[in-house]
Amino acid sequence: MKNVGILSVGHYLPSRKLTNLDLEKMVETSDEWIVTRTGIKERRIASQDELTSDMASGAAREALKNAEMDGEEIELIIIATTSPDSNFPSVACKVQKAINAKNAAAFDVSAACSGYLYAMTTAKQYILSGMFKNALVVAADKFSNLLDWNDRGTCVLFGDGAGACVLGWVRGNHGILSDHIHAQGKHDEMMYVDHEEPVPLDQTHQKMRKPHIIMHGQELFKEAVTSMAEGAGIVAKKAGVKLEDVKCVVPHQANDRIISAVAKKAGIPKEKFFINIHKYGNTSAAAVAIALYEAVQEGRIKKNDNVILVTFGAGLVSAANLVRW
Ligand code: UT7
Q1: Under 8 Å between Cβ of 290 and 229
Q2: Which end of the chain is more exposed for a tag (fewer CB within 10 A), N or C?
Q3: Which residue lies with its CA nearest to atom 17 of ligand 1?
Q4: Chain mean position to CA 273
């Protein structure tokens, strides 16, 4: 028996840390508010010349190294991002060049914070169809370029980063046993980018206010809880796995209170959820990818464990899968 599974994982985080105390000096906020309302303590911010494609390439290199593969062996590259370097070329083509994956097809997918699982599901179908033997899936976002650094309602929430995996055939009853992707375009107004002109972090105190990410937090919060709890249940049922037999849940890291509410609604103890939002904030598509990487590194996920990955984001888009490690 064989199935499509995750052969390796990788990640990349910019070195610059922006703490809640730093933000207190920039906008009318407090460490206490940010921690109690979101769980975030600090986040990473990419430098001006550290592009989304640079972060994606860093994560891709680590995933390739961990799979003991060369770029030339990769047949498909899919990058999940909503903050590409530019409209074109795709981030995927830039990563292809950076890792010398000269035999690969390459494209980006846009599914906001659910992008990693949308990309993984897409890549899995290409492998199942027989068109490609393997795929490199990367999620990378640089939301620091899309934020209005005068808007305390959004600028405290996000960070930059990237995560990656190599997908390929695995033997036995392992791999991605089930998946679920869904969208509710009728709620597109709940979170969107108003216009594209970037305001770099270091221009915080300029007078001109340029709205970028617009977010209706409370409405999103409710939708996030409902759709992530449902998604976890759907993929467990599709895979024929009881929720009590799930060892670890790796959720999108938007808000620690959302994760608590999802745990309660889904009936899965919160201790099973892997959480790293305190260190990185919401890194959009990359959040679940970085969390999966760390969960593996920290030994929270071991061979034969049933793991649920579950995400939610602007669109609205939600996604989940169940992976037997
Ligand atoms: O990944 C994409 C999907 N994103 C999400 O799912 C995000 C979902 N939403 C959330 O996580 C939460 O709604 C937020 C963290 C965004 C906001 O938390 P909240 O508990 O819903 O706060 P709120 O928006 O209701 O604001 C409460 C108060 C307001 O003041 P008043 O009107 O009660 O006087 C805000 O102006 O907190 C104020 N506030 C702040 N105060 C200090 C908002 N942002 C800040 C801030 N610091 N940074």
Answers
A1: no
A2: N
A3: 217
A4: 15
* Cα–Cα distance, 59 to 81 (Å, whole number): 13
pLDDT means over runs of 10, the chain (325 residues): 95 98 97 98 97 98 98 98 96 98 98 98 98 98 93 96 98 95 97 72 54 88 98 98 98 98 98 98 98 98 97 98 98
- Residue pair 63/137 in contact by the 8 Å Cβ criterion: no
Pocket test for ligand 1, best of 38, 204, 221 (most atoms within 8 A of CB): 221
Q: Quote helix, strand, coil % in the chain, to nearest 5.
A: 40, 25, 35
DSSP state of 282: B
Q: What is the pTM of this model?
A: 0.95
Residues found in the chain: 325
Contact (CB, 8 A) for 52 and 85: yes
